[in-house]
Amino acid sequence: VSGLPSRATAIRGAQAALVDAKRQLEEALALADKQAEELEQEEAARRLEQAKLDAEEELRARLREAEDRLADEKATRMREAETKLDKAIAERLKEAEKRLRPEVEARVEEARQSAEARARTAIDNAGPRLRAVAAACLEAAAEHAKEAHAKLEKLRARAAAGGGEDGERPKSDNEAEKSSSGSSSGSSHSRSRSRSPPPPPPPPP
Fold first, then answer.
1. Residue 145: per-residue pLDDT
2. Which of 57, 59, 92, 124 has the CA that lies 20 to 30 A from 142?
3. DSSP states of the chain
């Protein structure tokens, strides 16, 4: 009988220990679950951050590709636009040249014909004046020569007549020669003055 309380006490102690062990186990399980959840959350956060980094890198890569494509497309379109613009300008210039060439050629031809006409008119106007001046000079020279010849014949006739009926003293050979020389000199001076060319005609318009 004395051993029964000890056994009961041992059983109660064992039961209490079992309860305590169960409680500790539950606490350990709860702690493990909590730690596992925290680890899972951390892993999920890490994976989420890595996924975000990967997405950002992929987005940057796609943006670079898109920018490169846009730059290439822009350069291609600019080249095409420049080519079209150059072609349009060349066509416009050809059209303008084709349209203006006849007018320019007509004006050049008109200017050439006008210049030729003015030159012919100037030559035609100058010709008669020059011929008239030359004819006047020749006529004056012939007139002076005729007068000089008449004076010389008159002097010779007086010398041959021996003074004539008016009792005039016949001139000696020296006096006749001086008289003839004076007349000839005067005639020569007259001829030289008459032969001096007139002032040139005014230039043709």
1. 86
2. 124
3. -THHHHHHHHHHHHHHHHHHHHHHHHHHHHHHHHHHHHHHHHHHHHHHHHHHHHHHHHHHHHHHHHHHHHHHHHHHHHHHHHHHHHHHHHHHHHHHHHHHHHHHHHHHHHHHHHHHHHHHHHHHHHHHHHHHHHHHHHHHHHHHHHHHHHHHHHHHHHHHHTTTTTTPPPPPHHHHHHHHHHHHHHHHHHHHHHHSPPPPPPPP-
- Both structure tokens of 66: 């898109």
Low-confidence ranges of the chain (pLDDT < 50): 1-3, 164-205
Average pLDDT across the chain, whole number? 77
- 122 contacts: CB under 8 Å, gap ≥ 6: 204, 205
What type of residue is 4? L
- How far is residue 180 from each of residues 106, 150, 154, measured CA to CA in Å? 71, 12, 10
User: Which residues does 171 contact at the CB level (< 8 Å), separation at least 6?
Assistant: 158, 159, 163, 179
Domain positions in the chain: 7-195
Q: Are 204 and 126 in contact (CB under 8 A)?
A: yes
Prediction pTM value? 0.33
Distance CA 142, CA 158 (A): 25
